[in-house]
Amino acid sequence: MPKGYFLSAHRSPANPEKRQAYLELAGPAMIKAGGQTLASTNIVDAHENGAAEQTVLVEFESFEKAKAAYNSDDYQAALKALDGGADRDIRIFEGK
To answer: DSSP string of 57-70?
Structure first.
């Protein structure tokens, strides 16, 4: 079965206080949903329309599990804590 992935690519630096509140909830929410963080860094060589900002890649057993993690109550609480404190491009996609 193909894996599922959650990609978060920031467009600009996040509000530090809101980001910290988000991180305290988001990491455990992703782990609880079966996610494994493959990469989390701000060392980025961006091209075309990309931005060299914080980027996170989380792997799940399937595309459906990745979508379920994003929509979970735990992750939605993390988004509420972030409260607009970050401009991000979020993509959930199926791997091979």
So the answer is: EEEESSHHHHHHHH
Give the pLDDT confidence of 29-77 residue by residue, as tens digits. 999 999 999 999 999 999 999 999 999 999 999 999 999 999 999 999 9
Q: At what angle do helices 16-32 and 73-82 cross, to 10 degrees?
A: 170
Quick one: residue 27, left, alpha or beta (phi over 0 = left, psi -120 to 50 = alpha)? alpha
Please name which of 29, 86, 32 lies closest in space to residue 54, comparing C-alpha atoms.
86
Beta-sheet pairing, 55-60 with 4-10: antiparallel
Angle between helices 73-82 and 63-71 (to 10 degrees): 50
Global confidence as pTM: 0.94
CA dihedral 42, 44, 48, 49 (to 10 degrees): -10
